[in-house]
Amino acid sequence: MGDLVSIIMPSYNTAQYITDSIKSIQAQTYDNWELIIVDDCSTDNSIDVIKAFNDPRIILLKNAKNSGAALSRNYALREAKGRWIAFLDSDDIWAPEKLERQIQFMMENNYAFTFTDYRICLNGEWMPYINTGPMIVNKRKMYDYCYFSTITVMYEREKIGLIQIADLKKNNDYAIWLKAIEKSNAYRLPECLSYYIKHEGSVSSGSKLKLIKWHYLLFREGLGKSPALSVVLTLNNLVHGVWKKIFYKKKINKKEGD
After folding, report:
1. Cα dihedral across residues 88, 225, 132, 125: positive or negative
2. Distance (Å, rounded) from C-alpha 113 to C-alpha 90?
3. What are the distances in angstroms from CA 220 to CA 168, 180, 200?
4. Cys-Cys with 90: which of 11, 62, 105, 111 at CB 3.0–4.6 Å?
5. Please, what are the domains in the chain?
6. 208 near 234, Cβ under 8 Å?
C-alpha cells in the first residue's frame, strides 16, 4: 500500500466521539498507517474505548499531566515514524478514500504539504456548503489566515522536518502550519474528504473577543513577534477571515448527502 502514514490525534475526554473517528481511519482504502493517540489525562473512559479496538496500528501514549493539544501534538510528532504526517482530531471523521487520494495527489505533483476541502456538521446538522480554499497557500497567505482545517492536512515528514510548537492553548494547529509553510507552499486537493464535527464544548467555541486574543497570542507567544506586529497580524487575520467566509464556500444540494 506504499509508505507509512502517521496520524496524529490528541484526545481529552472524547469517549463519546472517538469511536467514530477511529472507525473512519480503519475504513481507509489506504491501510498502511499508524494512529498515534496522545491521551491528555482524560477523566472519562476514553482510554478504555481506545484499548477496546485492539488494533496493533493504534499507538496509545499518555501525558504525565494535563498539557493541552499543543504539547500532545508535539509528543505525537516526535514519535511519528511515517513518511506522511496527517492529522485527525478525536471527534472528527474522514471519507474512506481520504488518505489514498491525498497521497496520490502529492506523489503525482511532488507536493510536500497539502490540504483537502471539508464539510462541517454543527450540533448534528450538516452545513449546506463545503469549505474550500485557495489552490495554493504561500507564506503570505498563510499569515493572512488559516484557510484549511487541521483534519484536512498532510505533509511529507522528511521535507517539512520535525515541527514542535509553543504551548498554545488555542490556534496551536495554525502554529504548526506557520512552521510548515517555511519549507513548502500548501496545495489544495479540491475534493471534500474530511468532516469537521462541531458540538457544544468544542475547542473552537468561544466569544469573538477571546478568539481575537488567541490570534494575538499565536503571533506574540507562538511565533515571538513584537506586540505591535502581533496586533497588525491579528487585524489582518480578522479581515481575511471575513474574506474566507464569503469566497471559500461551495454550496451543495441537500441531496448530496447529510
Report:
1. positive
2. 22
3. 11, 18, 29
4. 11
5. 5-256 (3.90.550.10)
6. no
